[in-house]
Amino acid sequence: MSSFTEPLSWLEVHLDRLRWNYLSLQKRLKRGADCAAVVKADAYGLGAVAIVPELYKSNCRHFFVANVAGGIVVRDTLGENESRIYVFNGPYAPDAADFARNNLIPVLNTPGDIEYWSGFAKKSGRKQPAVIQVDTGMNRMGLSPDEVKRLGHNTDILKPLDVRYIMSHLACADTPEHPKNREQLEKFMIAVEHLGLPCPLSFANSSGIFLGEDFHFDLARPGAALYGINPQNTDQNPMQGVVTLKVRILQTREAAKGETVGYGANYTVSSPTKLATISAGYADGILRSFTTDGAVFIRGQKCPVVGRVSMEAIVVDVTQLSPPPQVGEWAEIIGEHQTVDDVAAAAKTIGYEILTGLGGKHKRIYSGQAQA
Ligand SMILES: *Cc1c(COP(=O)(O)O)cnc(C)c1O
Prior knowledge:
elongated; binds pyridoxal-5'-phosphate; seven-stranded parallel sheet
């Protein structure tokens, strides 16, 4: 009587809401500032090939990826047009010519990067585009304040380069009251002054946009907010959810008082309970830490996770559903009733990790495409 076929899970990406999010971020920026899109990690796991053209149709022209492989995907998807594609992690490719060939712009993070890229530009016989990243307190990527000063005294090395932006990245933008935000802003201004280049600036990620116009400069670089993650640490999410994740019920059963559920037998049933086993687990990006506080929604009703999340299955309590759910019915993990941030909170992590972890593990469908 098995009444369903694969897929056992279904990840819907709502492209109309993605575009809405992009436009609403662009609108928030001060006059003259441009809104880029960060599409690293395959557009936060949602599929750059589908995401990037939608953003382009919304007039997004600047795309940031982490590495050359990601950049080539975006370039192949968009073809040659007005798009600019920047590679955060530096000019590292088997061959510097991979950048030129695919029209990718490296972010230069170290004096070594600058030397290398400047040397390549000289050899290539024409100015090569680049972004220079300065570190303003995150201590992750970019020139240190000392390196910035030294570069400021020796800008000749930049002559072969066409420096498109100077950028930096915020560590605490999702906490507006954190003093580090202003500190980084000040350090950024100092670095820019030391470099003394007439050059546009890029500073804000998603949350940075919400810190106000002082943080906007010429190009904002949101990622998370485009994909519906709340950029503010308040309950009110100004963005629209972009993802719906549904998985099938594989089996239903009843457990009597005193029985246990799942690995480690660490959940004991306290009264007769109806259970449903659904087809997702930590191998599908539903983290094991979703065990204690996690829930899914079946027919819009909240069904708590019971027993440990396992590799490809989760058991939930469906006692309150009447009539009881059927094998093949859908359980919503992310969607109308539960946001990606809710799932992240229950799993004690952030929406970013949940989204990127879903990755290519579910059948993806895309809805709400823009007309060409
Ligand atoms: C990932 C990243 C972003 C985007 O950050 P969100 O918080 O996702 O908006 C911007 N800039 C840099 C340097 C990044 O690494």
